[in-house]
Amino acid sequence: MATATVSGTERGPGPVLGVVGWSGSGKTSLLEHLILRLAGQGLRVNVVKHSHHDVELEPPRKDSARLRMAGAAEVMLASPYRVAILRELRGAPEPSLAEHLARLAPADLTLVEGYKWERLPKLEVFRPSLGRPALYPDDADIVAVASDGPRPAGAGGLDWLDLNDPDGVLAWLQHWMR
């Protein structure tokens, strides 16, 4: 198991595991189950979700959007219920995953959805019925596959998990975290 160390935090993000797979494979549904169960056990779980699309978190007419559009570099939206920081890149390069991890609060585990190209341990969510190729044959950082299909010959030493048994995937994750 690999853990990330981030300077500037007491504990850092904890173990960092990427969750990758094609759109429609069930990554978010699996993550939702895992996070619900882990948080229910008192663990602090952070998530970094990558999107290729423009992210609009607030209606353009709201004060925070108006201030951002006026040129603010960052706008922190704070309430008694949540805090969000919106940073406009304005043509600057997208920050690296390491930079994003450094901004997060300490956690027992950080799950990263997306970032297929990053060098970090990954769990692939793979549904053969999507008609897309598995990622694990070309990505040595994939340590396990959660699939609704049988383990193919040539899957090597990968852990092959039943995607239809999310508690089994949870058990694997808890073992991996140790």
For the biggest sheet, the summary is: 6 strands, parallel
Beta-strand content: 15-25%
Number of strands: 8
Note the overall shape: globular
Indicate the radius of gyration in whole angstroms: 18 Å
Strand order of the largest sheet: 2-5-1-6-7-8
First CA to last CA: what distance? 8 Å
Number of helices: 4
Q: What share of residues is helical?
A: 10-25%
Regions with pLDDT < 50 over 5+ consecutive residues?
A: 1-9
Query: What integer is the average pLDDT?
Result: 90
User: Strand-and-helix sequence, N→C?
Assistant: EHEHEEHEEEEH
- Structural category is alpha/beta
Describe this structure in words.
This protein has 178 residues and is an alpha/beta fold. Helix content is 23%, strand content 22%. The protein has helices spanning 27-40, 63-70, 97-103, 166-177; strands spanning 16-20, 45-49, 74-78, 83-87, 109-113, 122-126, 142-147, 159-162. Helix 1 (27-40) packs across helix 4 (166-177). The relative contact order is 0.24. Residues 1-9 have low confidence and may be disordered.
Q: Could you write a compact summary of the structure shown?
A:
By secondary structure, the protein is α/β, with parallel strands linked by helices.
